[in-house]
Design brief:
This protein is mostly helical. The protein has 2 domains: about 25-155, Orthogonal Bundle (Helix Hairpins), CATH 1.10.287.1700; about 175-230, no CATH class. The chain is built from 4 helices and 3 strands; from the N terminus they run αααββαβ. The chain has helices at about 1-80, 85-170, 175-185, 205-215; strands at about 190-195, 195-200, 230. The chain has a 3-stranded mixed β-sheet with strand order 2-1-3. A hairpin with a 2-residue loop joins β1 (about 190-195) and β2. The protein is rod-shaped and about 130 Å long. The chain starts with a helix and ends in a 15-residue tail after the last strand. The mean pLDDT is about 95. The structure holds zinc ion. The site of zinc ion has 8 residues, from loops.
Amino acid sequence: MKSELDALEELQSLDLQTLEIENELKAIPKNLEEMKSEVEHVAALLEKEKQRLREAEEWRLERDKEIATQNTLLGKSKNKLQVVRNEKEQKAAQREIETVRKSIQDREEEAIKVMEAVEQYRATIEDHTKEFVELESHLKASEEEAKTRMLELQAQIDMGLEKRNATASRISPQTLRLYDRIRKRLGRAVVEAKDGCCQGCNMEILAQTYNDLHRYDKIYQCANCFRILIYKPKEIPSILPPGQEQ
Ligand SMILES: [Zn+2]
């Protein structure tokens, strides 16, 4: 029975190892998906910023056209001033010139503001393009790494399964079924009985059971969580020579 219990412990450690490997394997595509969505997010952001830049540039071109039109108008108004026939016409022409000048000034101020915005947009786009390129190349490298790692992990799982079969053959079918049933429900099916307690659920083990465990004559289970209990004798500490006590 002791050897069956040893085999059970081995089996459990193999199963826990495999579980860890399977979890790592499952996490890989998930991580890649997260990276991909980050790349897509930055790409979408960049596209929006480029659109905003195009609009700002178009707007600036419009202002330039308007300024050119107003300048033509200003020329015309100045010409009018040359041919005024009386004071009234002179005042009217001067007012017209003032209005056009004001309009040109307003548009020029707007154009400067748009230019500043355009510069800022360009700088942001440059930063985000850099970020995008870095993220994308990181994603590509990670995809390559992931392929290799997934193959490694799958090989480890396959190897673990071979070992598991060999170990399981040392355990009776009945005990194996019990182990699998508890494992499916609780994850860890074999636990140590230490200081009178089940290390799975931390409940006290019946004194009689705890004593019987020392005999290794059959499979004992915790009365509370039903896990399979294993008793490990305490190691006797070696006696250190005088003067070397710790
Ligand atoms: Zn228990």
